[in-house]
Amino acid sequence: MHTQTKFQLYLVLLLLRLICAFLPGYIHPDEFFQSPEVTAGDVFDYDVFVPWEFKPELPARSIVLPYLTTGVPFELLKLISVVAKKYGFYGFESSLALFVTQRLAFFTFSLLIDDSVIRLHGLTGARNPFPVLLVLASSHVMLVYHTRSFSNAIESVLLTVSFYLLFRASTLYTAKALPGKGAITSSQALSQATADVGAAQSRGFFSTWTVALGLVLTLGFFSRITFVFYGFPIGIVFLYLAIRNAWDQRGIFSKIGVFFSDIIPLVFGVTLTSMFCVFVDSLYFGSLKLVLRDRVVTLEDFVTVLTNDPKSLLYDLTLTGTIVITPLNNLVYNLDPELRASHGVHPLYLHLAANLPLLFGPLALLAAYAILKSAVTLRLTAGNLPTTLLAYSGLCGVALLSLISHQEPRFLLPVLVPIVITMSQRFSSLPRVFWVLWIVFNAALVVVYGLLHQGGIVPMMGFLQKQSLGIRNCVPLDSAHDACDVGFVVDEPFIKPLTHHHYTTNLVFYKTLMPPQHLLRYPRNWKNTDITINVVDHAGAELSVVKKDLVERVPVGDPASVAQGWRRDGRVVFGRREGSFLLYERTLLIAPATTDLTPLTANNSGFTLKLVHRQWPHVNFDDFDVLIADPERLAYLDAYLLTVAATTDKSEGDVAGEGERTVE
C-alpha cells in the first residue's frame, strides 16, 4: 500500500472517529458525571447531580481538568449563545448543543495522541508512521472511548504527551550536540554526545521542555491518582538521563551542577502546577476564602479583578481557611475497604482475563507477549529507549492496577499507545487473517458501544427536556387537570404560567444508566418557581420499590382528561396531587422495552402506564436474552405516562401518535 493511500485511509478513520463522537452510545456514567455534568452546572447554572467526588465535604477529584476539558468548551458555547441572542438567534444552548460540544472537545483532545504517536514513532528509528497510525486510529478504543468525556481518556492523552515531552527535552540537547544527525534514541549515543561538549553547554539540556513535562505529569496526577502507575517509569528514565548527563561531566562540582540544572526545571514545573491545582480546588470547594477589601469574593470575582485591577490584589487581597489536596482525599477514600467495595469488587485477574481482550481484541495476546519481552530483554542502557520506556509503562500500569479489587476496562485506556508502539515493528509480519479479525472485532464494538449500548438515554433526555420546560398557556380541563403548552427554547428568563398552580414533572428512570441531568437544562434559579423537575433514578431496584414510588404519585381525577389532553396539539396535562389544590404534577416512567412492567399495574394498583415515546436504538445487556428474541420491537427506550386507572373498560390505542401499547 502506497504512502498516499495510507494517508487517505487515515483521514477516513479520522472522519469515522468524528462521526463516532456524535453517536448516542452511553458506556458508563463516569463519561458524564466526572466532567460535563459538573461543569455544565457551573457554567450554565443548571440544576445537576453532583457526584461524591465533587462534594465539598471530602472533594476527591480536582476541578481543574474537568474545567479545562469541558468547562472551557461550555464557556465558548455560552459566549456564542450570548452573541447569537443579540441577533435574534436562539437555541445554541440546547441539549444537542451541550452534547455535541463535550464530544467535539474530546475528539479534539484525542488528536494529541495521534500527534504524539507520530513523534514518538520517529524516536524509535522508524521512518513510516502510518502502520502505527492506522492501527491506532482503527481501534474502537480511539473511535469510541477517547471521544467520550472519561477522565481515563484525558489520563491517556496526558501520558502520551508526557512520553513525547520526555524525549523532546532530551533530544533538544543531543540535536545541538550532534548537528545534522537528528534525534538520538540510544542512551549510548546520548552519553557520547554529552562527553563531547562542555558542562556549560549541557546546562540547557532539559530547560523549557522539562518544565512542560513537570506540568503535564502533575495534571495527570491531579486528573487520576492511578496516573502514577503508568507515569512513574517516566520519572525513572528522566532521572537516569539526568544522572548519565551529570556523570559524564568533569569534576564533582560540574557533575552536581549539571544534575541540579536538569532536575530543577522539572521540580519547578511540578511545584508550580501543584500549587495552582491546590489553589483552584481550595477556592472551588470553599475551604479557602478570598477576602478583598473585607469582602469574601468568588473565584469568578477574583478573575475579574485580576483582569481589570491586578495591582489591588497585591495590597488588598488576603486568604483565609484551609487548602484542599484532592488526590490525597482520593487516596484516603480508596484506602478504605468498605468504601472501595461500594463501587464493586472484582477478581484480581479481571484486567488480564477480560478487560485487555475486550479493549484490544486479537492484539491483546500479541501485545502482552511483546511488552513482556521488551521489559525483560530491554534495559535502560539499550539502544531503543523510547520502546523500552513504553513497554515498562504499559506493564507497570496493568500490573499495579491488577492489585486493586475494583477493575473496569476504561482503566486500561492508557495502555493503547504502549501497545501500538511496542508492536510497531511486528505489524508488517502479521498474517492477513489477523487484520481481518482486527477489523471485524473493532467494527463490532464500535456498533455495540458507540451506537447501541444504552443509546436511547441521550436523545431521550432531549425529548424530556422539551416535555418538561417552557410550560405556558395553561388552561383547566376540569377541576383536577390543567393542560399546558411546552417545548419553547429555554434561553429566556423564567416565564410564569397563566395560573396560580405549581407544576412538577417527575422523571422516573428504571433499569438505565444514570441520566445526565445537565441535558435537561433545568436552571437552578427555577427551583423556587412554579415549574420544577424531579428526577428519580431507581437503577436496578426491585419492581416493588418502583411500584411503591409510582403509587404515591398517582394524580386524582378522570383519566380520560389526561389522554385527551396529551393528544390535543402536543399539549401536556398535569393532574392535581392528592390532598392539594395548588400542586399539579405528572409522572413519566422511562425504562427499556425489554423490561416487563406488567407487575407494576397488577392487583388494582390504581394506575396505568400510557406509552408516549419510544427511542431507538437502546440495548440493555442485563436483559439481552429477552432482547435477542425480538430485537426489532424491543431495542427501544420507552417513556410511559402515569395515569389514573379507569373504572370502566379501557382501550389500547396510540397515545400522541407514537405509542403502541398500554401497560395496565
Give a brief description:
By secondary structure, the chain is of the alpha+beta class. The chain has helices at residues 3-21, 30-33, 36-44, 64-86, 95-123, 130-138, 140-143, 151-177, 187-195, 199-202, 207-223, 227-247, 252-284, 299-308, 311-316, 326-334, 337-341, 350-360, 362-377, 385-401, 416-423, 432-452, 457-468, 543-551, 559-567, 624-627, 631-634, and strands at 288-292, 295-297, 317-321, 472-478, 481-485, 502-509, 531-537, 572-576, 583-592, 607-615, 637-644, 662-663.
Q: How are the elements arranged and paired?
A:
Blueprint: H1 3-21, H2 30-33, H3 36-44, H4 64-86, H5 95-123, H6 130-138, H7 140-143, H8 151-177, H9 187-195, H10 199-202, H11 207-223, H12 227-247, H13 252-284, E1 288-292, E2 295-297, H14 299-308, H15 311-316, E3 317-321, H16 326-334, H17 337-341, H18 350-360, H19 362-377, H20 385-401, H21 416-423, H22 432-452, H23 457-468, E4 472-478, E5 481-485, E6 502-509, E7 531-537, H24 543-551, H25 559-567, E8 572-576, E9 583-592, E10 607-615, H26 624-627, H27 631-634, E11 637-644, E12 662-663
Parallel strand pairs: 6-7, 6-9
Antiparallel strand pairs: 1-2, 1-3, 4-5, 5-8, 8-9, 9-11, 10-11, 10-12
Helix pairs in contact: 1-6, 3-4, 4-5, 5-6, 5-8, 8-11, 8-12, 11-13, 12-13, 12-20, 18-19, 19-20, 19-21, 20-21
